[in-house]
Amino acid sequence: MSASESKTLNPTEMGQKLVEHSKSTEFTATHGLVVDLFPFLFEASARMSARAIHRYLQEEQKVKLSQVTISRALGDPKKSWVSYFSKVEAEAITIAKWTKARSFDFLFKSKAEFEKTFSFEEEGIIGSKLARGIVTVLRPDRAAAIQVLREKWFGIGQGIRLKAKPYLEEHLMSLRDKF
Q1: What does the pLDDT look like over 77-96, one tens digit per residue?
Q2: Poorest-confidence range of 10-19, 127-136, 159-168?
Q3: Range list of H helices, the chain
Q4: CA distance 29 to 161
Q5: C-alpha distance from residue 151 to each of 71, 114, 137, 157 (Å)
């Protein structure tokens, strides 16, 4: 399209054509992906540059996440950690209420400690299975919260979660009113 043709189109027409074109091209929006990957990007950035991370993701994982997007996420770790944490926030509040915790310190314990707390091992093999079954039936929100935290929060190494703590402290303090 020449410059004279673009002058004859109004902004609405240009916008509509852009949207139509976007529907026919490969999906490239990766904002959600960078949030989901942030803890791992954060950890990898201790040894790799944003460019190297970008190359690895593109070549090895076939994931298109631009170097600029990675750099932007790493450049504002507080915002990125809060965005990531928002994906498990409701579950963390559910567990804090259930355990009558006065803080979110349980989020920064080891995965083994978390598992021990919610495996009901102290009740014995039969008792623990019964307790887990009762929680699943009577309080499915609690069972779901445990599962989400197990996968999305405790799937991150404890060292990285501890490094996230200073970035999340202010946000976590604001959540204390919710339980």
Answers
A1: 999 999 999 999 999 999 99
A2: 127-136
A3: 3-8, 11-24, 31-44, 50-60, 67-75, 77-85, 89-98, 111-119, 124-138, 140-148, 158-175
A4: 27
A5: 25, 12, 21, 11
